[in-house]
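Handout, section B. The chain below has 142 residues.
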Amino acid sequence: MRVALAILLASIFVSTEISAQSTVIPPQIETAFLGMWRATDSTSGIEAVRIVKIDPLHWTAQVWGRCQPKGCDWGSQPFRVLQQAGRGPGFRAVAVWPLRDGSGNRFLTFRFDGSDLMVDHYAVSRGSLAYYDADSRLKKER
């Protein structure tokens, strides 16, 4: 299932950039996603995520991967809310970063488990799943 999702993501985004939202995001989704999030588990591949609203149709996500001695800043990329139905678990989003060697992309999917932000990280290189890190759990800073 997870490999199939990675392949689906790769096929969707291989030749397409994530663009602006097509509609303004409702306030309850803004409240849910926006802010600084930190990993709750030191084994997670994702250390932190900052989600920012630039304007009503443009959001970005900045990610820090878990590197030593401090987190690796991946920079900011467009953040797209994909699913706006439901409450909490119904909100889903995605952001994409190019791999450093230019061979593919990192796809991060975002969803909620209660008030925690869950992040799945897929790295697709040369058309194959090269890396997968499931269920990084992040808590919002207050």
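Note. The domain at 2-140 is CATH 2.40.128 (Lipocalin). Compare this with the example in section A.
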